[in-house]
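Example noted here:
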Amino acid sequence: MNHPSKVIGFVNAGHFIDHYAMLIFAAAVVIMGPALGMSYAELLPYATPGFIAFGAGSLLTGWLGDRWSRRHMMLIFYLGIGAAMVAVGLVQTPLQLGATLFAIGLFASIYHPVGTAMIVSYAEKLGREMGINGVWGNLGVASSALVTGVIGQYLGWRFAFIIPGVATMLIGAVFALTVVHEDRRGAKQAAAQARVAREHMWRVVVALLIVVIAISTTFNAVTVALPKLFAERLADLTQSPALLGLIAAGVYVFGAMTQYTIGRLLDRHALKTVALPLSFILAPLLYLAADFSDLPLILVSIGIVMGAFGQVTVNDAMVGKYTSEEWRSRAYSVRYFVGFTAAGASVGLVAWLYEHGGFSTMLHAFAGLCLFAIAAALILPPEIRTPRVALREAAAE
């Protein structure tokens, strides 16, 4: 029998690896361009197929997680994404680069519908565990910028992919020896944790679709563009890739703290109570960032990252609260298919907006998109807590 904390620990590590792997290229592209004789705008679109696979693949992987085995799917995730990272470090042509980045995205698509469903199944307190899981993912984003910058500067961009790839496959081997196939008949979270009136369920679906598209697109655009944005606009502070990576990592740490805080709030309050004030953060800060540089840009970027990562925690908790065990991976697969497909399109959009108006135009465009997050939060219906959850919360108090 699997111990819940052991399983959650491996799933959290997988979240770290998932985001780390998907963003190595975003940080390495700054030094890959000169080495391959290509510009930033020419090289960045090669990541698009991988980000599309990240979303589209989740439909199949979520179905397999429900119908086959979440444990086996996580093992494939660890070994597959590790091997794909190593393969990127060995490419010789742009076509090979696109193919291996696609492989990273395809194996990365396993994590969110499968791993997040495992978190919900084993969690005692959903909001807290979602928040902690989000912290691990955020640390993966932060570490990717930092470690890739350091390895790239001292060992070259190829080792920035090869070293984490080998480490990931070793973790997969430990996972295979430690976690056994799950028995879901005793899952503690078999039923939905909260519900809304049947006649209002359409509002949940519409709100989720709107906010997932808006936030996923913005989230991915910001994480992809931030290393290049800092390289351009922090020139008066530093031009060192390693130091720029450290600054980006520091910014993402604030996002990690936000996810933990939002997770705790979701255990104590209705989802709309948390989501509504959070929805007002991103649009104005993205608009301000368009004209900022140096220290003001760093401060505003902290606010943007906090808002974006906080929204991601709300979106994941929304699905976890309202779906039952037998459908949970598939529900997450639809959520991530929509979100990551929109996110994949954002890579090409970032490149196009950057080429036609620089980062000012890009940030203004995404500020407008984030206004939809406010509308989504406003249409969320009141939440009806299930009796079991109410009793458990009363006992905890």
About this structure: The longest strand covers residues 194-195. Confidence is low (pLDDT under 50) at residues 186-192, 388-397. Residues 328-369 form the longest helix (42 residues).
